[in-house]
């Protein structure tokens, strides 16, 4: 008996429930491996466990080729079993408009964060889309998002979801995020499926990441998913979903969009507490008719859109944000009166049909002020004097 107790080991991991009802505790990137811990169907039902729950407990010793089995559960998502049994499911919670801003401004020279805070703010529970042609600084912008969130909001759990990505880009993003997180690295994870993986792996990783996010939100957490990209995820679904017999332009099956829309549509601010924010990139002008159709299907489904402009990046103007086209619905719930008045003034008097001139003008104004607050005060004061 004493020997068996010594062989028992602490078990932890994210639960993946299989089709037959039992499950396994997965480790990094939710991949299956030799160290996975088996969770019985009876335990899953008794404790109302679900895919995405992070479980800590004690597992039995490993025998021959069999996985260790979970014997005792200590915590579920860092909460007691009793607290977990009393939680409401994600779909039972009440979605409301985002009403608290996620601040992106960090330093004077973080022009991307400052522009977003002024013209296309992001709130807790936002469903945002970054619309980007190739080579306009999309990845750099997503890195800026991650750095700003990790610096300004210690209460947010950040999930970076990279689909069909180059392996070196994954490494660079992981290292950047770990460095930016510092002591808060237990509140961030980079989940990925590189371009050399099967489409089914892209789908599984994305669905696990969504389940993980929902599980955290059920306990009142604020979660942000940065998805790069919803276009490549939709392509993966298009290759593996059962055909409907109907094919849209570009070879896109309507069934292929249900999975990506389920992920994007999960973003919401919740009255009971907690929120899930999803910021996803969508690719345009790639030369693929399918990519254009995917964007058209998602266009208008978000409540925040940020457009990147190739004409700006070709002239080495970064961030290449088309301010005129970018906006957030109900931004009056996120911005105070001074910022709203400043935004209205700039949109009315500074913005034109030429995105190059308008972006250069705004970047110049940002470069001469220490912060958005200073800029707003200066512009409002000058307006009063006029």
From TrEMBL:
Residues binding ATP, per UniProt: 123-128, 135-140, 166
GO biological process: DNA-templated transcription termination
Pfam families, alphabetized: ATP-synt_ab (PF00006), Rho_RNA_bind (PF07497)
Alphabetic keyword roster: ATP-binding, Helicase, Hydrolase, Nucleotide-binding, RNA-binding, Transcription, Transcription regulation, Transcription termination
Database matches in PANTHER family: TRANSCRIPTION TERMINATION FACTOR RHO (PTHR46425:SF1)
Family to which the UniProt record says this protein belongs: Belongs to the Rho family.
Physiological role: Facilitates transcription termination by a mechanism that involves Rho binding to the nascent RNA, activation of Rho's RNA-dependent ATPase activity, and release of the mRNA from the DNA template.
Protein name, UniProt field: Transcription termination factor Rho
Record organism: Dubosiella newyorkensis
The encoding gene: rho
